[in-house]
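Quick log. Single chain, no ligands specified.
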Amino acid sequence: MLEAYARGGFAAVAEFTHPDFEMTLMANHPLGGRTYRAGDAPKAMLEFAKSFEDFRAEAEEFIEAADGRVVVAFHERGRPRGANIELNQVFGILYTLRDGKVARMEWFDSPKEALAAAEAED
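-> predicted structure:
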């Protein structure tokens, strides 16, 4: 799925997402503070990526978590348009699968925080 995302963004991963897909991001993220559903998550992420001059993202590590969930260490880099700062952070994304598809993505400030959340929910 992440390879497909790297090639074609959210449109390329539709076949991997559950119809009831939802995504949440940490409160301090520009898209944080709400839950995105299957229909609006791709648009929100695309708009976020477009706000950068040179946005790049890649999965660096896959970590097995509680209840068959997976934490992905996801490295994002780029410079927001009109800014002099660079985004260069490894986030943690906790993936929950249902019926063989991604049903939930929960973003955290680090892979360690994502693992802790998975263990707390177990």
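The longest strand covers residues 87-98.
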